[in-house]
Each structure stands twice: as C-alpha cells, then as structure tokens.
Amino acid sequence: MRIIGGRLKGRQICPPAGYNARPTTDFAREGLFNVLDNEYDFEGMTVLDLFGGTGAVAFEFASRGAGKVYSVEMARENATFIKTEAAKLGLDNVVMVRDNVFDFLTVCHEKFDIIFADPPYAMEGLETLPDKIFERNILYDGNYFVLEHGDEHSFISHPYFKKEKRYGRVHFSFFVK
Description:
By secondary structure, the chain is of the alpha/beta class. The protein has helices at about 25-35, 55-65, 75-90, 100-105, 130-135, and strands at about 45-50, 70-75, 95-100, 115, 145-150, 160-165, 170-175. The protein has a single domain, classed as Vaccinia Virus protein VP39 (Rossmann fold), CATH 3.40.50. It has 5 helices and 7 strands, in the order H-E-H-E-H-E-H-E-H-E-E-E. A hairpin with a 2-residue loop joins strand 6 (about 160-165) and strand 7. The protein is globular.
C-alpha cells in the first residue's frame, strides 16, 4: 500500500504479516480521492475515519493537508500500528481513538467536514451507519459521509444518498444532508 497524493505521495504503508484488516485498495482509494479532490480543499479540514484498519485513508487525508484526522479503530494491534505509523510518517495531525465505532458515535460531540467509514463488509449493522451519523449531527450540512461497502448493500433509497462510485468490487456510497 502507498499514499496516493499530497506531501507524502508514494510513501509505503506496510502492515506486518497476518495483519487483521481489509485495506481499501490503492486503486479504490485513488478513485475516491479523485472524486473528493474535485469537490474539497482538504487544507485545515477535520476528518473522521471510522474503522481505521491500516490507517491508509486517514494518512491520505493527513498527507493532503487535513488539519486533524481522527481514526477510530477497536482492535488493539491495528490501533497501535496506526499510531506508530502516523508517528513514523510525521503525521501529528492524525489522532488515534481506540474504541468501538458504535460506542464512539454515542459520545462524540465534535463536528466534521468529512466522515469516512470502511467497516467489515459482512458486519452486522453496517446498513445503520448512515442513520447513526446523521442522527448524531456530527457532520457539517452539505458535506459528505462516505461509506465503503461491497455488492451486497445498496443505499440508493436512503434519504441522504447522493451517489455511488464503484471501483472493482469496492463501492463508495456518498451521503449529504
């Protein structure tokens, strides 16, 4: 895996063998950030990355100038990797939050410019994430909540659904209030 753009473009992210996460592919991340680059200037933004995994998406936002990127990850090993890798990359704007995403959402009071979530595709409750985000009012109106998911989910009928982009088997659903 590598960072696609920004000041750290080309830097490698190398989780250890046996790492328990399904990272967003470079191809899909590049597609996602091509969409976002056309609509946002990341400079100084506050971003929330739910289900941090390898940290690749958080690092991408931070590399492109986001002011603060919160990465929420429950697994201890993954959280430690994200924190360590952020330090190696000099990304002091990445804040690691070790918590269950659903628990975190109930106590979060910060507002974000963009929220990204990449849950396990087979996770029970994945389809409830858009409602949980919008019920908490933690995303600035008019800005994106982006949910990565597989073929088995469709959010076209959700009231805040705006569009979907597909990159191979990876789907990104964009929601706006």
